[in-house]
Structure formats: structure tokens, C-alpha cells
Amino acid sequence: MKKVLIVGESWTVQETHVKGFDTVDLGRLEQDSSSHLVEALKNAGIEVDYLPSHLAQYHFPDTVEQLNEYSAIALSDIGSNTIMMDPIMQFQGIRKPNRMLAMVDYVKNGGGLAMFGGYLSFSGIENKARYAMTPLAEILPVEMLNYDDRMEHPEGIVPAVVKADHPVLSGTEGEWPWFLGYNKIKAKPEAEEIAVIGKDDTFMASMEVGKGRTFAFASDCAMHWGSKAFLAWDGYQKVMPNIFKWLAKEI
């Protein structure tokens, strides 16, 4: 397997500390939420490049040739605007390759693409992720909404496996841990639905696309939707690498 690319799972914070009469503005970069996924892949012997959201605007691969350096790519909690709106194009009026179209061609020619859930995945909060309006809607294994698709479950909700023999579940046993929410998606007729959640919403689905493969995971691979119980679950160390191995056609 070639290396894989994880994109997203980071954000910057600007906050104001009020100390009586005085205020202090502070800023910081948060990107630790990628660590669980990256660690699970590295533990399985998979080489990983990680591209946080603020760098993806500038450095996400522009062409199929650049994407072909990777066996699989995962978008996780990063909206379509960040991928499509290269600042050089936006602020200098210079044409740039459409990265979404490049990903479509990459998959159809043999690449692998996964999307993990989150506030800026699939449709996302206030439909800001808006992937249903992009070329990726053609190749992802699920139908997406054109409005806010968050299903919040502060009480916890447990997915149910419907296709136990799918390769991504190899090595996992028993009931899954609970989650705190997910994106409402539905497997396409031509896709394989692997697990469901809630009232028959899709939790995991996979699909063959041309010579390549795509995968959808409706909840978060990290907190907050990905609960502490999920991140500590033994199956996490199996399922996450298996998704990328399946995308790379190694299982």
C-alpha cells in the first residue's frame, strides 16, 4: 500500500479572556482530534500524511497525478468550501484546477476515498459542508441532504451491523460502542450498507466506483460525536485501518 492522506480534523480558536476591567484576545490552533485516527493507522503499519484544514486550502492536491501518490484519501470534518476555494483563485482571480473533479477522476481510475462524519461533513451544520452540491455526490456511496443533516444524541446511540461479513469489520466482535450523534445519510441502491443507526439511517456504506472505491462513515472518528467509549474500544484499532485497506484493495 502507498501512503494515505487524512484531511481536516482541525480548527483555530480565537477567544477573549475578560479579567475584570481588562480583556485579552488569544488565539490557538486545535488539531489533536486527528491523533486517534492517525495513531490507529500507523499502528497497523500504514504510512500517513496529515493535512489540517488551514493548510488544505493551499496544499490539497490539485491534480490526479498528485492524488495518485496516495492509496486512499479521507475527508473528515472539513467543508467543501475549504477544498474548492483555493485562496489564490479567490483573492487573485487566477484559475485553478477543480479539486473535486480531480478526486472524481482519481477514484474512477483506481483511487480510494472516505468521508467521516462531523459538523462539516456530508451536509453538515446549516448545510455549510454542502457536499451534495459538489461532484463528490456522484461517487460517494450515500445520498446526502440539502439542509442541516445533524442527528444529535446526547443520550448516546448505538449503531447496528447489517453486513457482518464486510471486510472492514474483520477482527471486531460484539455490539458497537455508543455515539453522540451522526450525519443523516442513506446508502445508494448500488452501494453496500454495512451498518445502520437511528431509524434506518446509514452508519457505514461502501461502493465500487469505476476502478476505485468509496466509503462513508456517518459519525465522527474523534470527539465529540465519537465518544470516549468508541475511541477506547478495541475495535477502533481494527475498523479504522480496515477501511483504508479496503479502499486500497488490500482486503
From TrEMBL:
Gene3D superfamilies linked to this entry: 3.40.50.880
Record-linked Pfam families: GATase1_like
Top-rank lineage group of the source organism: Bacteria
Domain spans labelled Putative glutamine amidotransferase: 3-248
InterPro entries cross-referenced by the UniProt entry: Class_I_gatase-like, GATase1-like
Listed name of the protein: Putative glutamine amidotransferase domain-containing protein
Source species: Mediterraneibacter butyricigenes
